[in-house]
Amino acid sequence: MNAVITGASKGIGKAIAEKLAREGFNVAICARNAGHLEKAATDIQAANASIKVLARSVDMGQKAAVLAFAEEIRNTFNTVDILVNNAGIFIPGGMGDQEDGLLESMMSVNVYSAYHLTRQLLPGMKAARKGHIFNMCSTASYTSYPNGGAYSITKFALLGFSRNLREELKPHNIKVTSLSPGPTLTASWEGFDAPPGRMMEPEDVADLLWGAYTLSKQAVVEEVIMRPMLGDIA
Q1: Concatenated DSSP letters of the chain
Q2: Which domains does the chain have, with CATH numbers?
Q3: Among this protein's residues, is 178 annotated catalytic?
Q4: What pLDDT is recorded for position 229?
Q5: Residue 138 catalytic?
Q6: Out of 151, 175, 178, 213, which one is annotated catalytic?
Q7: Catalytic one of 108, 138, 141, 162
Q8: Which residues of the chain are under the pLDDT cut of 70?
C-alpha cells in the first residue's frame, strides 16, 4: 500500500504521514524546507521501520516541480492508494491590503498543485479502479471571515475542485473526500497565544482521515468540517 502526502514536513501533513506509516503504508512526502523534510522523513521512518519513505524537497507552487515529483512517485510506487493534497500556505489579510501577486502565488500552492498532482496520478488509480483522494480544505472553504483575503478565496476554490472531482470519479470507483479542519495547533498559528486545549491537534485530523479511509468499499465520506469543541477562535 502506498500513500502520497504533500506539505508533510510538519503539522497536519506530518501527522497523517506518521499515521499511515504506522498502518503499513509506504509514503511519499514533499515540502519546501529541506531541513524540516529530512527530520520528518526520519520521524516517519521511525514510526515503521519496514515501510519505504520517499521524501523530496518540492516547491508546490511551481508546475514543473509538481510534475517532476509525480513522475518520481510513478517510478517508485506501482500504485497510489491514498493521495493527500495538503500543501498550502496561509497569509492573512484583507484583499484591499494584500500585496499584488499574492493571490496568484497562493492559488499556485493551495489549488493548482492539487490539480496538477491529481491529474498525474489519476491514470494509475483509474487503471487499478481504486484509490482515495483527500483534499485538505478548511472551514474557510465554507465561511467568509474578515482578514481572510486571498487565503479564503483559494480554500473556496479547492473545495470546488474536490466536489467536481468527486462527481467525475464515481464511475471509476475512486473515492474523494474534502477534509476541512478549523483551528489546529500547527505552524500556521505560531505566535498566537491560545488557551491550553483550545485548539485541535494534528493527530485529530489524521485519525479522522484514517476513519474515512477504512469505511466499506460502498461508502464514502464526501465532506467533513472539524472544529474545536468550543468553536472557532475569533
Answers
A1: -EEEEES-SSHHHHHHHHHHHHTT-EEEEEES-HHHHHHHHHHHHHH-TTS-EEEEE--TT-HHHHHHHHHHHHHH-S--SEEEE---------TTTSPTTHHHHHHIIIIIHHHHHHHHHHHHHHHHT--EEEEE--GGGT---TT-HHHHHHHHHHHHHHHHHHHHHGGGT-EEEEEEE-SBSSGGGTT--PPTT-SB-HHHHHHHHHHHHTS-TT----EEEE--TT----
A2: 2-226 (3.40.50.720)
A3: no
A4: 87
A5: yes
A6: 151
A7: 138
A8: 95, 186-196, 234
Please tell me which residue in 10, 14, 155, 175 is annotated as part of the active site: 155
Residue range 145-195, pLDDT digits in tens = 777 788 899 999 999 999 999 999 999 999 999 999 988 776 655 556 666
